[in-house]
Amino acid sequence: MKDTLSQSSTEHTDFASQLPVEKTVFDQVIDRKNTGSLKWEKYAGKDVLPMWVADMDFAVAEPIQNALIDRLSHPVYGYSVQSDDLKQTIAEHLKAEYGWTIDTDWLVFLPGVVTGLAVSCRAFCKDNDKIMVNPPIYHHFYDSHEGKRQSLVKIPLHKQGTRWTYDLDSMRVACANDLSMIMMCTPHNPTGTVFTQAELLQVGNMCAEHDMMIISDEIHCDLVIDKSSKHIPTAVACPEHADRIVTLMSASKTWNLAGLNTSFAIISNASVRERFVSACQSIVPSTPPLAMVATQAAYAAGGPWRQTLLSYLWDNYKIIESELNTIQGLRLEPLQATYLAWVDATDLGLENTAAYFEQHGVGLSSGEQFGQAQYVRINFACPASVLREGLSRIRSAVEALPG
Ligand SMILES: Cc1ncc(COP(=O)(O)O)c(C=O)c1O
Question: Which helix (H) or strand (E) holds 216?
Fold first, then answer.
């Protein structure tokens, strides 16, 4: 059964003594070198701190590791199916966190959310169809469609006050041009926006008016670190449009399981689900047994760990905020979710900002891959001591620029 503590996880408190897992757990610096880590191998043998790809430098929650060890002790790792228990655990998590009642038949398991984006393009788009995306956006939104067979219509987000959000007027104009689908990212990577009920409903209404499918990538849903915001699944924000919505989720970002290949789609409409499942045939492998074990442990028993994680990430975000505010030429975009800081480096006037920082010992994601070349993205899911070292390198790099 789901731990009751996990049900109040979005109400995480700043009082360390009230947190269910000690914050010091996240202070531990773990050497990830020589573990085949994509994030760390990129700079093997170099003095560059990796703060790029979206995985965390934290150990997984104890219940997850224990469940994996337990499963590994059985020596047969054949093809696996998803247990009713796992499906029920996911349904309970969605109910507890988002008030979303799903039927477990709606779940389609996948080895990754990016797979879900690619499958959606194949399932719901024909040749010459147009798909809307809203830059800046996670780079796989640009390459999940079928090469030249479909094209992307890019309508950038715009800034309203301090938040990046949908430019609905421009989106409506574009929709008149016979679009078949939108791929949304909510909460949003890289800006960290948590969209409101009203914003999601407006997008839903627009898509319904133009008979468009909605693919909602909600991989960051359990990572809302600003207590004043709350994630609302798109299908919950606009239940009247649920038949056209495919929601993609995973425990992988929040519980640091990216290497285990685990995710799932939630599709309430049976014929939409059938099209999705049939597009998976012979292409998408079954989900590995360890992925299922880890996912179940995460949702069933990882709530207390997550509660402390969110608080720790918020503290790290505050460290970035106070540091970057004193580095001339860099401007942090306020965020509500994710552990990815979106930083405007326009005023540095560099041609390739990420490459410049790399030369000065810190590996950031270049904004170019998300569609905003003058930005960099900083992954701050690391011990605070490592974060401070990274920020100090960023400061030195900026100070080394000719006046
Ligand atoms: C918005 C978004 N979608 C999908 C992914 C990757 O998902 P997966 O590893 O499950 O394919 C990421 C990873 O950072 C992401 O930020």
Answer: strand 213-217
Tens of pLDDT, residues 225-249: 999 999 999 999 999 999 999 999 9
* Strand (E) or helix (H) holding 43: none
Residue type, 363: G
Please report, for residues 80, 106, 112, 269, the alpha-carbon distance to residue 274 in angstroms, rounded to integers and kept in the order given.
Answer: 21, 10, 19, 9
Per-residue pLDDT reduced to its tens digit, 20-64: 889 999 999 999 999 999 999 999 999 999 999 999 999 999 999
Cα distance between residue 144 and residue 281, in whole Å = 17
Non-local (6+) Cβ contacts of 65 within 8 A are: 59
How many other CB atoms are found less than 10 A from the CB of residue 180? Answer: 18
pLDDT at 313: 98
Please state, for a pLDDT cut of 70, what percent of the chain lies above it.
96
* Distance (Å, whole) CA 171 – CA 368: 22
343 close to 333: Cβ distance less than 8 angstroms: yes
Asked whether the predicted pLDDT for residue 18 surpasses 90, the reply is no
The span from the CA of 42 to the CA of 362, in Å, is 12
CB of 52 closer than 6 angstroms to any ligand 1 atom:
no
Q: How far is the CA of 96 from the centre of ligand 1 (A)?
A: 23
The gap from C-alpha 232 to its chain's centroid, in whole angstroms, comes to 14
- Ligand 1 pocket, mutate which of 115, 221, 253, 380 (most atoms under 8 A from CB): 253
* pLDDT 10s digits, 315-366: 999 999 999 989 999 999 999 999 999 999 999 999 999 999 999 999 999 9
pLDDT recorded at residue 257: 98
Q: Distance between CA 203 and CA 195 in Å, rounded?
A: 11
Preceding amide of 190 cis, omega within 30: yes
∠121-123-124 over CA atoms, to 5°? Answer: 70
User: 3-class DSSP state for residue 40?
Assistant: helix
Question: Which pLDDT band holds residue 16 (cuts at 50, 70, 90)?
Answer: low
Place of tokens 């050497």: 31
Domains of the chain: 4-63+303-397 (3.90.1150.10), 76-301 (3.40.640.10)
The residue to mutate among 189, 287, 380, having the most atoms of ligand 1 within 8 angstroms of its beta carbon, is: 189
